[in-house]
Design brief:
GO terms for molecular function: DNA binding. The protein is an alpha/beta fold. It has 12 helices and 6 strands. The chain has 2 domains: 75 residues, 434 Repressor (Amino-terminal Domain) (Orthogonal Bundle); 195 residues, Endonuclease, Chain A (2-Layer Sandwich). Helix content is 52%, strand content 12%.
């Protein structure tokens, strides 16, 4: 049985990497001239900023000396996949956030650390609405608040479909205990949110770790983040950092390696695997008091 078929984001990343490798030590300006392209177009293709059509990718590969039919078909398939129009491309968000959603859809393992609110993929609608309204400092009926929540719910639906598929991803999320003690949306909403965490944690491939307040200092004190990894490319990690003012997407290996190390250390704080159960029990008792 084969592995999962790459989605649009990973297909674009793989194709741009392959084309850069094929160019080898050829001058980019010479290649662009031979293809009747601008140098900017070639650079954007190799950097994964734009897609390249099947006809163009075959012509470029042949220019590089690729004549193996199967390899040409593989490159063309990556081109076709990379150009698929997915729902998130119709949303009007910043480029980094849109690209993050695309990569999230293709990731084989979704990691994250949250110190201020429940991880977005694990939020119930009522909690998502309350926390988004607070972060944006706008009423819950505000159009921007509603749009962000709607997109978050679409991301959750995409994840659920993949979890039920033939090649389900893994989800490992670390949450600071203070998040569970903060009654976002009120007591009833928070109780439902805590119950949802418990249910999600029962699903295969989902791990939720809670960092207890008594832990003191830990590697996550540097800030929250989300980390995506991919079976198709061990060299590609994606880190997303969200702030009220702007978002950041990191793909450089030197940058993302630090977040891999932090993630490992945070997950290692729960060797027995019972941190969520203990924290949920304590949080519910606090809500009832």
């Amino acid at each position: 049985m084969g592995g999962p078929t790459p989605g649009p984001a990973i297909a674009r990343a793989l194709l741009s990497k392959d084309l850069r490798t094929l160019r080898d030590d050829r001058a980019a300006s010479d290649v662009a001239r031979a293809m009747h392209w601008s140098l900017s177009k070639l650079n954007r293709i190799e950097n994964g900023k734009v897609t390249i059509g099947p006809v163009e990718v075959e012509a470029l590969a042949r220019h590089y000396g690729v004549d193996d039919p199967e390899e040409l078909r593989r490159l063309v398939r990556l081109s076709v996949t990379s150009r698929q129009r997915m729902w998130w491309r119709d949303e009007h968000f910043a480029e980094d956030f849109t690209n993050f959603i695309a990569f999230e859809h293709d990731a084989s393992h979704l990691y994250g650390y949250q110190a201020t609110f429940i991880p977005p993929l694990l939020q119930i609608p009522e909690y998502a609405l309350a926390v988004t309204s607070s972060v944006l400092r706008r009423p819950t009926r505000d159009r921007q608040v509603r749009t962000i929540v709607d997109v978050r719910l679409k991301r959750q639906e995409s994840l659920r479909q993949r979890l039920d598929g033939d090649f389900p991803p893994s989800l490992s999320q670390v949450i600071d205990e203070a998040v569970l003690l903060r009654p976002v949306g009120g007591g009833d909403v928070m109780t439902a949110q805590l119950d949802h965490l418990a249910e999600m944690a029962k699903r295969p491939g989902i791990r939720i770790v809670v960092l207890p307040l008594r832990l003191g200092v830990h590697p996550g004190l540097g800030g929250t983040f989300e980390l995506l990894t991919f079976t198709e490319d061990d060299d590609l990690d994606v880190v997303f950092i969200e702030t009220p003012a702007s978002d950041f997407l990191l793909t450089d290996r030197e940058d993302t390696a630090t977040f891999r190390e932090i993630t490992t250390e945070l997950l290692d704080t729960d060797p027995s695997g019972d941190s969520l159960h203990r924290a949920l029990t304590a949080a519910k008792a606090t809500l009832r008091s």
